[in-house]
User: Which sequence fits this backbone?
């Protein structure tokens, strides 16, 4: 006779992996960890915390490393999100599995309880509650969120059988057997986490999950094709913020109604400026007459001069874009100054505090 599934606990715990250095997002992450970057008007993690709370999570352990103290400063004890937040810091990088195991030292749930594990750089619209419920009902060791992508050859893929059990973790291949990939959100049984070697570098993708499958444990895939985005690059970061502002991905943490633009309190925008594409204008920022801002993140206290154009870009805190300058698909660091009639495009990155004089960089001759 099959044992009945354990009831879903009223108070769920989660581990949030936020230890990465965010090197692909430099210079944005030189002074700020990636999960704290302003995204649709709030720190990126605010969207994940709100989503976790909506799924019934009441206590979260932050697995920190890079600039760990900044997370405590930003979120404190979690009471602003109706959560209890505690912090565990890795002194040296331990990989995904090692980080989860290190954070588990702060868990207080029972051995058979489900523990949600989230990556601090993923935006997802999938139903976390349904993923947890599937895990509990099937008494799985681990249940992975699998997302469906158009081109799985760019990723390792994760095939499942007819019962939804994961059968393998396959490396990148030109001929993938499925379009489903690991989406980076897991539900573990607490006792499974406790068996990960403590204090060692461990990869869940290369060691923990394949080992569980080899041992005959139930590793499930929760597959869907809803919104999913890894915000690890500047282009993806800008897209994620714009998608949240436009309501393509709903978030309880969005500080305003969805629309073409989010203008935060204290910002000054000329009525003759055009702000579109899910752009955010940060507190204390100014946008002059005739300026165009589309699909971009303009951080607090930045200045966009009259007639400047900013498209699909990030303008750092306190940075300035002078008259006639064009910034497309670029990242401008905090307090950098872009002089008049410069043209920056195609992935340009300007480090914090740098000053570009007038017409220093152009891609056309009509200066």
Assistant:
């Amino acid at each position: 006779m099959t044992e009945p599934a354990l009831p879903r606990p009223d108070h769920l715990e989660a581990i949030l992996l936020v230890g990465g250095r965010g090197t692909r997002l430099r210079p944005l992450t030189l002074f700020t960890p990636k999960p704290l970057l302003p995204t649709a008007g709030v720190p990126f993690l605010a969207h994940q915390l709100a989503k976790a709370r909506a799924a019934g999570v009441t206590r979260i352990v932050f697995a920190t490393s890079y600039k760990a103290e900044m997370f405590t400063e930003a979120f404190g004890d979690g009471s602003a999100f109706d959560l209890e937040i505690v912090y565990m810091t890795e002194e040296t990088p331990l990989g995904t599995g090692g980080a989860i195991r290190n954070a588990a030292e702060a868990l207080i749930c029972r051995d058979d309880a489900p523990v949600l594990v989230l990556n601090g750089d993923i935006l997802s619209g999938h139903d976390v509650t349904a993923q947890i419920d599937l895990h509990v009902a099937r008494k799985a060791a681990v249940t992975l969120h699998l997302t469906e992508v158009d081109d799985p050859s760019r990723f390792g893929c994760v095939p499942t059988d007819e019962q939804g059990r994961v059968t393998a973790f396959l490396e990148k291949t030109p001929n993938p057997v499925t379009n489903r990939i690991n989406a980076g959100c897991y539900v573990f049984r607490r006792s499974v986490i406790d068996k990960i070697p403590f204090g060692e570098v461990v990869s869940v993708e290369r060691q923990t999950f394949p080992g569980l499958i080899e041992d005959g444990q139930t590793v499930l895939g929760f597959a869907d094709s809803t919104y999913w985005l890894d915000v690890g690059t500047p282009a993806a970061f800008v897209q994620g913020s714009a998608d949240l502002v436009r309501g393509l991905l709903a978030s309880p943490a969005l500080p305003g109604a969805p629309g073409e633009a989010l203008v935060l309190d204290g910002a000054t925008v000329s009525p003759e400026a055009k702000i579109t594409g899910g752009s955010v204008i940060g507190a204390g920022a100014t946008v002059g007459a005739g300026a165009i801002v589309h699909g971009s993140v303009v951080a607090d206290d930045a200045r966009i001069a009259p007639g400047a154009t900013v498209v699909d870009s990030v303008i750092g805190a306190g940075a300035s874009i002078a008259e006639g300058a064009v910034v497309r698909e670029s990242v401008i660091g905090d307090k950098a100054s872009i002089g008049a009639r410069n043209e920056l495009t195609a992935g340009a990155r300007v480090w914090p505090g740098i000053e570009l004089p007038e017409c220093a960089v152009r891609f056309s001759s009509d200066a």
Observations:
- Residues 1-6 have pLDDT under 50 and may be disordered.
- Residues 256 and 299 are 16 Å apart (CA to CA).
- Helices lie at 44-54, 69-75, 95-103, 128-138, 190-194, 204-214, 234-246.
